[in-house]
Amino acid sequence: MRPDRIVIGTANASSIDTLRRLYAPFNRNHDRIVAMDVRSAELTKYAANAMLATRISFMNEIANIAEKVGADIEQVRKGIGSDPRIGWHFIYPGAGYGGSCFPKDVQALARTAVQHGVEPRLLGAVEAVNDRQKEHLFELMLRHYGSVDALRGRTVALWGLAFKPNTDDMREASSRTLLKQLWSAGAKVRAYDPEAREEAQRIFGERDDLAFCNSAGAALEDADALAVVTEWKQFRSPDFAQLKAKLRDAVVFDGRNLYEPAEIEAAGLAYWGIGRGRSIRLH
Fold this sequence. Notes:
Elements: E1 6-9, H1 13-22, E2 33-36, H2 38-69, H3 73-81, H4 101-115, H5 121-133, H6 136-145, E3 155-159, H7 174-184, E4 188-192, H8 197-204, E5 210-212, H9 216-220, E6 225-228, H10 240-246, E7 251-254, H11 261-266, E8 270-273, H12 277-282
Parallel strand pairs: 1-2, 3-4, 3-6, 4-5, 6-7, 7-8
Helix pairs in contact: 2-4, 2-5, 4-5
């Protein structure tokens, strides 16, 4: 409804004129139409999503370095985002990207390159980093608890199932990777998502180690730890005192860096975020 640009791929001038008239209601302030040949338009679509995916994987890799060297990726993000050559878009570290567009388009572009004799080294790295990042939240749990065996029999409250807020889409969602890891470790999950419950039930069916809850608060009942996987707005300002009272192990694993470590730790909770080197030192 409010496009930054409207890319049209065609070799037919009359088609461009027709589409200009079609898109006129969405194109009033200034001309957003970029007309080009069909091949260039196709490559533009793939390249745009691949670029955004690259930025996400780059930030996730820097976040992992930040954890090791004792830096805070949120401070690093502010430092590089203020550079106008870089900007603020898609430089938020987290538990990996999902959905249909980014994974599909990165893979399609890489396969197209191979078919035409080009080795897509960077695209392969983007996908590999993202696949690895989806396992990182579980790795933080292992750091906290010490071993896989220590997770057996524990219950994790999971906030967020969809791959991003404001959708029920769970395609390639980071939550799916975490759920499988927790179940393999013998843990149980109490999950809440404002939109994706039915989709999750369709994917996973009925399981003894998975309970779907009607609210974020209900997911905390009888839970040992909290893992935040999707950055829904309603998860941004929880009552930390309530979290401390309800979570038996008083620990939060923040897969989207929604919270400030100092604020959570002041409430008596242990905090593990993505690339928050401060928390690694404290724990």
